[in-house]
Structure formats: structure tokens, C-alpha cells
Amino acid sequence: MISKRLSELRKKRQWSLQYIADQLNIAKSTYAGYESGYRQPSLEAVKELATLFGTTTDYLLGVTNDEQPTIELTNAAFHMTVDGEPLTEDEIIQLIAFIRTKRELEKHKK
Amino acid sequence: MISKRLSELRKKRQWSLQYIADQLNIAKSTYAGYESGYRQPSLEAVKELATLFGTTTDYLLGVTNDEQPTIELTNAAFHMTVDGEPLTEDEIIQLIAFIRTKRELEKHKK
DNA sequence: AAAATTGTTCGCGATTCGCGTACCTTTAAT
DNA sequence: ATTAAAGGTACGCGAATCGCGAACAATTTT
């Protein structure tokens, strides 16, 4: 799974194997091994690759299929901030209501 | 890092080494090695551990420090949904404005 | 078409894995 | 209090896997 993800991400960015190897300070053949599935990257390498590609380790490992995670706001199983300030329970509720109301209005406009 | 995280999460849940070992189908000593730092789990094991603990691999690996990720809404580097429907760019902008305005009003109320 | 860059594969030595085992500590049962 | 059971820690062993360098093919650049 990770080999597929790495290969996709690298090609999308048009980066060479050598470039990535240089960024992580590993041999080209080592990184090539990750993509071919011949080798598995260390946990440390996985972290660095996620950072380099601007994605999450969950995506690289295939825990999730979203390169940028998708968040369902009605499941408050996570924390949100605006301008660094955490949202309160109430604010989240109002926010969801705001979106729902707006959508309801749009629907009738048609 | 991962050893520290695993240890914390397990203790918080009051699970035994054996219990986790059974869940992942590995030897108790193998999992114990993860917590002591004597061994590193395979990528597959990391995935399963994240699922078992209901957290993310990013947290286990120390990419993030939030067991439940914190999302800054003004960085739209991710996707959001309400009732399964993705939010549009505009909706996000309005939503942030909504929160900011509300906070501004609160401030003056005091 | 020659040179340079990129990508693929593989053998080697070194490292690290997972397991079983042994042992100590803590908890539960009698 | 004594014993049994369960939880936790440490380590040796054989097997598996790592990272690297090297050799070579494929592609791109000059």
C-alpha cells in the first residue's frame, strides 16, 4: 500500500527518486525499494515522507484514502480552532445550523 | 516516541500487554518490546495499533501531538463535510466570518 | 549520438524482527 | 498467610529485513 501511495505522490509532483533520497538522506536505491515494495521504510522515514509530501502518515499507510483528510463536522470527535482559538461546543452547533440553514435557503431559491 | 505513546494509551485504557498482543496476534513479548523501545513495530502493526486505540498513526508516530487532531479552519488544507455534503470554498469563508463576528459581539457584550 | 539523468534490480554485511523462555512483581483466591 | 494466576520486563536465538553500493537499462538532455 505504502509503495503505491509513494509512487503516486512522487509522480504527481514530478520528483525524481534521487531528489527524495537526498531530502531524507538515504540512498536512491533505498527509496526506490520503498516504491517497488522491495523494502519497507522505517517509522522515521514514514514520518519524513508524510511531511515531505504534505500528507498524513494515515494516508501513506492506507488507514485513510484521503490525501487531505475529510472531516465531518457533525462528528465532533476532534478539535477545531479559528484563529488559534478553540471552538466551543455551542459554536460548533451554531456553525452546523448556519450551514444547514443556508443550504435550506438555497434549495428554495431554485 | 511511539513507545511512549503506546504506553500512555494502554495505561489510560487499563489494558494489559497480553490483551493487545492477542488483538494483534503477536507475542506479549513482542508488544512489550514496542513499549520498552526494544523493538519497533512493523508498519502493519502501527496501523492496527492506531485503529485499536482509536487514534491516528500521526499521533502514534509523533507527527502530531493531538490524540484527536486539531483542525484550524482558516487553513483550508483539508476537506470538510456537513451531513456528508462537502463544504464549498464560499461556505467555509462564511463560516469563519460567522465565528469571528460572533466573537466580536461577545467581546462587546462584556 | 554521446552524455547525463533517471529508474530498476540484486548481493552483501549489518541490523532488527518476532518468538519463546525465564524471571520478577502484582493481584486474586482460598 | 500461602499459593496460584496474571501482568510486566529482559534477553538469546534464528530468521527476516534493512540500507547501501554497484551494475545496468531506459529515458531525457545537450
UniProtKB/TrEMBL annotation, chains A, B:
For this entry, the protein name equals: XRE family transcriptional regulator
- PANTHER family this protein is in? HTH-TYPE TRANSCRIPTIONAL REGULATOR ANSR, TRACRIPTIONAL REGULATORY PROTEIN-RELATED-RELATED
Q: Where is the HTH cro/C1-type domain?
A: 6-60
Q: InterPro entries from the xrefs?
A: Cro/C1-type_HTH, Lambda_DNA-bd_dom_sf
GO terms, molecular function: DNA binding
Organism whose genome encodes this protein: Anoxybacillus flavithermus
What SUPFAM superfamilies does the record point to? lambda repressor-like DNA-binding domains (SSF47413)
Q: Which residues form the signal peptide?
A: none
Keywords linked to the UniProt accession: DNA-binding
